[in-house]
Specification:
441 residues; alpha/beta; seven-stranded mixed β-sheet; 16 helices; globular
Length: 441
């Protein structure tokens, strides 16, 4: 019997483990810092062994004791490379959902030498986005098309029915991750030239987009789009853009929160402060100035501004004491996010992803190809973000156990051996891209 070690029993683990139990005969070992989490995901299955495990202590001993054929690493991104190093050292294959960065790429040659596959970026974004784009771009090239422009955006949101707070957002991942993404530098390719938005500046360059069947949203550039030129094999493209989808109003709110310094990490003495006093201090309120007046002055807001009302709704103008005596502005906001941006029981989340390809052909024709994924969470069951992130590594594990991934080294899922069967299986599971052709813009 094959053995799989699953690291982490967080939000995405249940659909991953459930798929493995239904579609493989492997024995699973599931570990988490909190054994109760692992037990809840295992659901009493006799094929799953659970235990408590502290990943900060390294995984070599765990790998030696469990001797897995494959590791599925669902831990936070910071554990990607340490676990991968241990996998190479013990000649153990690994699937991971996090982004490949330079320290991970450096393991490519050692992994090949060890005969080990390190298949990374196999979740939603990154993951499903890679597979869909790689498939379509290869088909475009096979038809003799030349890719002029590639545009791709993704968003994990509350469903339209669950969009019930002024921020238009509810947490489907950690608040620290959400805040960190608000301070990223962004890079795009526009008319053959690299455009760089310094950290946080991307929110000054948003636009509205229409998702067919859903309505209007806003989008902004996210992180570095340039590596995808090579990853997707589209050197001819003059415009390459990857972005994030949000409900309208998000970008302006986040930009003002950045301007106020709400995402800064410097530790502050917060002893005895209320939320209102903390906010007034950040805004530099004078002795005769209210927090609201100071916010309007420093952020250039009118007293009736929706931004002011959103900050009040979040709790930043409450007269209640802060929950800790020392902390950063970022930690104050993260705590409020955890309290206010929450899904209520029975509410559904929504994953939206869209790719747009502007293509020219040798006979002079020009076309736009659009691929759209709209997926809702299961009422009373797994969220969409959990399924779209947790199912791809489970499908990849199944392919590996069946001997269908005959390569070694560090890879993203842009190889046909990965994306063809994975996309077909995701479609069978209800995670489907709708494809259409349009006249180019």
């Amino acid at each position: 019997m094959k053995r799989i070690l699953v690291l982490g029993a967080g939000r995405v683990a249940h659909p991953c483990v459930d798929y493995l139990l239904q579609h493989t005969d492997a024995a699973l070992t599931l570990v988490d810092q909190d054994k109760h989490n692992a037990d809840a995901v295992a659901g009493g299955s006799s094929r799953v062994t659970t235990s408590a495990f502290d990943a900060t202590q390294g995984t070599k001993e765990l790998l030696a004791s469990t001797k897995p054929d494959l590791v599925i690493n669902l831990l936070p991104a910071a554990f990607m490379v340490p676990v991968a190093r241990d996998c190479v050292a013990t000649r153990t294959n690994m699937i991971n959902v996090s982004y490949i960065k330079e320290d991970m790429r450096a393991l490519d040659a050692p992994a090949r030498d060890a005969g080990v596959l390190l298949l990374c970026e196999l979740g939603l974004d990154p993951g499903i986005d890679h597979m869909s784009a790689a498939k379509t771009i290869r088909e475009i090239h096979d038809r003799g098309g030349k890719l002029e422009s590639f545009w791709s955006c993704c968003g994990a949101l509350p469903s339209q029915e669950a969009n019930t707070n002024p921020f238009g957002y509810k947490l489907s991942w950690s608040p620290s991750g959400l805040i960190g993404a608000s301070k990223r530098e962004a890079r795009i390719l526009k008319n053959g030239e690299v455009v760089v938005y310094p950290p946080g500046e991307t929110f000054r360059h948003t636009s509205f987009i229409e998702i067919k069947g859903l309505g209007w949203f806003e989008q902004y550039a996210n992180a570095d789009s340039l590596p995808y030129i090579r990853l997707y094999d589209m050197p001819e493209a003059k415009n390459v853009y990857r972005g994030t989808i949000r409900y309208i109003g998000w970008s302006e709110t986040i930009r003002k929160m950045l301007d106020l310094g709400l995402f800064e990490e410097e530790e502050l003495d917060l002893t005895g402060l209320t939320y209102r006093e903390f906010t007034a201090r950040l805004a530099g309120a004078t002795s005769c100035e209210s927090a609201e007046a100071a916010l309007c002055r420093v952020l250039k807001l009118e007293p009736y501004s929706s931004i002011l009302h959103k900050l009040a709704w979040l709790g930043l103008l409450d007269d209640t004491p802060l929950p800790f005596a020392r902390g950063s502005a970022r930690s104050v906001v993260a705590d409020l996010y955890l309290k206010k941006l929450v899904f209520e029981p029975g509410e559904q989340d929504l994953v939206v992803m869209e790719h747009r390809y502007e293509v020219s052909f040798t006979d002079g024709r020009r076309k736009r190809f659009v691929s759209t994924l709209v997926n809702l969470g299961i009422k009373g069951g797994d969220t969409s973000i959990a399924r779209t992130t947790g199912l791809p590594p489970a499908i990849g594990a199944r392919l590996f156990l069946e001997g269908k991934l005959p390569f070694t080294g560090v890879h993203a899922p842009v190889l046909p051996e990965v994306y063809k069967p994975s996309l077909a299986e995701l479609e069978r599971l209800g995670i489907v891209f709708q494809e259409r052709e349009e006249l180019p813009a």
